[in-house]
Amino acid sequence: MDKGFCILAQNNSSTDYVRQAYALALSIHKFNNDQKVTIITNDIVPEKYKSVFDQIVPIPWTDQAEGKDWKIENRWKVYHASPYEYTIVMDADMIVTHNIEHWWDELSKRQLFFTSNVRTYRNKIVTSRKYRKVFDSNDLPNLYSAIYYFKKGNTAQEFFTLVELIMTNWELFYGKFAGIDYQNWCSVDVSCAIASKILDNRQDITDPNSFITFTHMKPGAQDWINVPELWTKVIGRYLRSDGTLFLGNFLQQNVLHYVEDQFLDDNFLNRLETI
Amino acid sequence: MTQGVLLFASNNAQVDYVKQAVYCASRIKKYLNLPVSIVTENSSYLASAYPENTFDKIIPVPKTSTDQQRRYFDGVYATKTLEWKNHSRSDCFDLTPYDETIVMDTDYIISNDKLLSAFDYNENFLIYKKYTDLAPNRNTSSLKVVSDRSIDMWWATVFYFKKNDETKFFFDLVKHIKDNWGFYRLTYQIANRNFRNDFAFSIAIHILNGYQNTDWPKSLPGNMYLTTDLDQLISIDNDTMTFLVDENETGKYLAVKTKGANVHVMNKFSLGRFIDEEMHNG
Questions:
Q1: Given pLDDT bands bounded at 50, 70 and 90, which one contains residue B89?
Q2: Cross-chain Cβ contact B150/A253 below 8 Å
Q3: pLDDT reading at A219 higher than 80
Q4: N or C: which end of chain A has fewer CB within 10 A?
């Protein structure tokens, strides 16, 4: 089975996403055997980083995010750029904390899969709807695109063709399908949710009870009474020599979507490189 | 296998925990019909003030002094800062005369026999995490966790254990946490300097679970209802208790009645007044 991970990384003025993709690829290799990881980028990949990537693939066609700071406009292209028949796509600002090889067996039953019930760092299902009002108000599938999977074929192609259409005409589609609590910026999560609603395939592409999930570190999702601006300011992070990761007092059991760039400081990356 | 209940009661300047223990033991006898032993610094006082007490064993421990103090509320409008002696709970493994023990706070008022089924579970250790606040609209979410960003709270108010190597390890760990409280309270982001058994138990459970949430330990049978020290106990009539519960520290009270429910009555003064009345009336 030709399978692998894809990470789309486009640096902007403040964040080195290629560096984040490198850290993610390192963590995938640390805990999983014989995995292929492709980075999709138009940025320079430093020589040191190249060894963790199976392939370095340029972003197809024109750069639709040129001049933008939050570069999400090219995200629909991952389907077309992936060199694999079976692909797990991850956001660059993630770290794998354990073996996830078994995910492939589970995902091979699907054409397309999105995570839906994500977790707090205490490994509880996120119940806060702070960041999901537009989903609730417009009955959109509760999809998270930080991790998704596709098998190349008609189902996924149809889906991502529609996602392309939505993302390039997002104001039109958001107005029509997500008009309540209207979100005035384009996001992959909302775009994929609208595509799923149009195609009426939510039952086929997600499962709230699936073990395929991640820890989402948006501060407002952590069940905290006092929500800080940055979670990295209020709980510690500890990477042990055996690779186990603690946030606060909690052993991390899921893929970590750390969200805040501050997480991946030089000390952390150096430690990740040496374990 | 011997079975029984163990109470810890050492008085401070204004709270007569021994008196509470005598009353608590009478409720245990009535509803659980189990032998009750007491660990106390005040065994002479117990013998002289309550000569007809029904304790199975009185286990004296040396008098200790502590610089630990806490604020005791007596409803919303009254508060006293008093010595808080709570350091001997982790010695229950060594002190209990029973093979299987339920350890209970003296302000835990029993009104049913549900705890008896703890002895039928094939478990070494049982404790509550869930609780029900008798004030229906009060926000007690802070009681669910040790601190906002830390671990779930388990209640050392009442727990069951079977004496064996596993539980010895657990209580040794609780003692270690107690002995190194300054380290652990910082590690678990606990702002208050006071040592608290609920916190030490919660930390020990978290550590033994490999720093994760698991399905260990199991819950004690039945429910733990609680009133805080902002509430007032009005009456206890057999298995029926009446309280005035505070609505979010506003001073507006709501009357609540329970029947057949075990309730943690945190207002010690309110409980003390009721016991005085009860004992006076014979």
A1: confident
A2: no
A3: yes
A4: N
- CA pair distance A56, A244, nearest whole angstrom: 28
User: What band does B252 get if pLDDT is binned at 50, 70 and 90?
Assistant: confident
Between chains, do B212 and A250 touch, taking CB under 8 Å as contact? yes
Q: Which of residues 181-220 of B touch A (CB under 8 A)?
A: 187-189, 206, 210-213
Between A and B, how many CB-CB pairs are < 8 A?
33
Specify if B130 maps to a domain. yes
Euclidean distance between CA atoms A61 and A79, whole angstroms: 13
B197-232 per-residue burial string, b: 16 or more CB within 10 A, e: under 16: bbbbbbbbbbbbeebebeeebbbbbbbbbbbbbbbb
**Confidence at residue B245, expressed as pLDDT on a 0 to 100 scale:** 94
Six-digit token string for A230: 């940055």
Q: Is B102 helix (H, G, I), strand (E, B) or coil?
A: strand
What ipTM was estimated for this complex?
0.83
User: What are the residue ranges spanned by the domains of chain A?
Assistant: 3-274
Report d(CA A183, CA B214) in Å as an integer: 38
Residue B98 CA: distances (Å) to CA of B38, B41, B143, B164: 12, 20, 31, 12
pTM for this structure? 0.89
Spatial separation of the C-alpha atoms in residues A52 and A43, rounded to whole Å: 16
| CA–CA separation, B23 and B109 (whole Å) | 9
**Nearest neighbour of B212 by CB, restricted to A235, A248, A251:** A251
Q: Do A225 and B148 touch (CB under 8 A)?
A: yes
Q: Which fold has domain A3-274?
A: Spore Coat Polysaccharide Biosynthesis Protein SpsA; Chain A (3.90.550)
pLDDT attached to residue B71:
81
Token pair recorded at residue B218: 């199991």
